[in-house]
Amino acid sequence: MFDRTRVRLRLRIHQLVSRLAAVGQAVRVRDQEDTMSTVPSTCDRTVITLDTPLTRAVARHPAGKGRPAAHTAPTRPTARPERRAAPRKSSYRLTRRGRFVVFVAAMVAFGGLTVGLGTQVIATSEAGEPVPSRVVTVQPGETVWDLAAEANPRGDIRETVQDIADLNSLASAGEIVAGATIYVPLY
User: Fold this and answer.
1) Which 8-state DSSP code applies to residue 2?
2) What is the pLDDT of residues 139-175, one digit of tens each?
3) Alpha helix (H) ranges present in the chain?
4) How far apart (Å, rounded) are the C-alpha atoms in residues 19 and 75?
5) pLDDT greater than 90 at residue 104
6) Are the C-beta atoms of residues 183 and 133 closer than 8 Å to each other?
7) β-bridge partners, 40
8) Which of 52, 39, 56, 51 is nearest to 2 (CA)?
9) Under a CB-based contact definition with an 8 Å cutoff, are residues 182 and 138 in contact?
10) Bridge partners, 134 (sequence order)
11) 14: closest CA among 47, 55, 48, 46?
């Protein structure tokens, strides 16, 4: 048999713990599922366990999972189904260093795109006017100044040299070599 005084004492302690846990919370209605169950133990004694919502909550709590339970009392099915936590979605969390690396990588990519695409020719909606010109092969000892003076004898030679450089995409007038073919505008 079992000692009724111990059972009453354990029940009273359980009630006190329940009241202390409920401080500051809504008033708890007495649950009809509070029961006591007897479970035979291995040393020829009967062990009394309290099967209450509090003991079931403690058994389900993650902090109680690591401790080996002395005995898990059989629970009766409840009228409402238990809520199970939805599986957690994996999320990426970056450290301060990780955020810095991502920022630097984005800036390098942005800079590379700016340099790579920024040097492209920009098209306009204006149609260019074709410049009437002739093809001239540069002879040894000839300069762009000589070609400009020959092409436009009555005009300003500096403007003609600039026109020849623009037409042939020359950075300077001294870039031509003997044997090269260049375009000279007609005046």
Assistant:
1) -
2) 999 999 999 999 999 999 999 999 999 888 888 878 8
3) 4-21, 53-60, 62-65, 96-118, 144-151, 157-167
4) 22
5) yes
6) yes
7) 46
8) 39
9) yes
10) 184
11) 55
